[in-house]
Amino acid sequence: QVQLVQSGAEVKKPGASVKASCKASGYSFISYGISWVRQAPGQGLEWMGWISAYNVNTNYAQKLQGRVTMTTDTSTSTAYMEMRSLTSDDTAVYYCVRVDNGEVMDVWGQGTTVTVS
Amino acid sequence: SYELTQPSSVSVSPGQTASITCSGHKLGDKYVSWYQQRPGQSPVLVIYQDRKRPSGIPERFSGSNSGHTATLTISGAQAMDEADYYCQAWDSSTVVFGGGTKLTVL
Fold first, then answer.
1. What is the pLDDT of residue A101?
2. Cα–Cα distance between A35 and A47 in angstroms, integer?
3. Is any Cβ of chain B less than 8 angstroms from the Cβ of A95?
4. Which residues of B touch A61 (CB under 8 A)?
5. What is the mean pLDDT of chain A?
6. Interface touch B43/A95, C-beta < 8 Å
7. Cβ within 8 Å, pair B44-A108
8. What is the per-residue DSSP string for B5-34?
9. What's the pLDDT tens digit per position in A67-77?
10. Shortest Cα distance from B7 to chain A (angstroms)?
């Protein structure tokens, strides 16, 4: 079955960087894109950006431009999200989501909790 | 920037119909998806392209979108439907989420 399995929880100090992974299985990795969405404690969903696993085109949310980088490794069907210069406001659960050609975000990973403290 | 507005909470009695709205400028010109998120779980897609249901989603979930408002309707609401619901659309190659609606079934 289609599955996105994310890396484990992270605790980081302010100013540090974090890199989360998202391993896909059960489908052709390069036929879809991956979006990253985060959710701060008790808050709603915030879109961070998107990467095409086919041609590695990216599009980042304006407020995160310059601080986030999304990449893919097609040899392992894994997507990565790196965020730099972390502050306490970046404490959140980070989700990867599969995106099809019709821009439907249909399968979500289990989330990676990042705590900045 | 584009905004989607949802009511913060909606209540429904078991077996009755719940409607959750999502408003945005000319939203009817865009495709809307809806996600259900139970406490401590990842969101789940329940409606995409305004009115389509992914496999495995019960028929009691339906959607519509016209003008400036999209609506998620849950017919015959059950206790298991109690969750947060988020609408979502694409605007200028970016994803926009509504603020979320807490559905209470009581």
1. 84
2. 8
3. yes
4. 94
5. 97
6. yes
7. yes
8. B--SEEEE-TTS-EEEEEE-TTGGGS-EEE
9. 999 999 999 99
10. 13
Instruction: List pLDDT tens digits, range A65-113.
Output: 999 999 999 999 999 999 999 999 999 999 999 999 888 999 999 999 9
Q: What is the rounded average pLDDT for all residues in chain B?
A: 97
Residues of chain B with pLDDT > 90, as a percent, come to: 100
Whether B53 has a pLDDT exceeding 90, the answer reads yes
Cα of B16 to nearest chain A Cα, Å: 26
Q: Which long-range contacts (CB under 8 A, 24 or more apart) does B3-8 make?
A: B3/B96, B4/B87, B4/B88, B4/B89, B4/B96, B4/B97, B4/B98, B4/B99, B5/B98, B5/B99, B6/B85, B6/B86, B6/B87, B6/B98, B6/B99, B6/B100, B6/B101, B7/B101, B8/B99, B8/B100, B8/B101, B8/B102
A46: nearest Cα among B96, B100, B36? B96
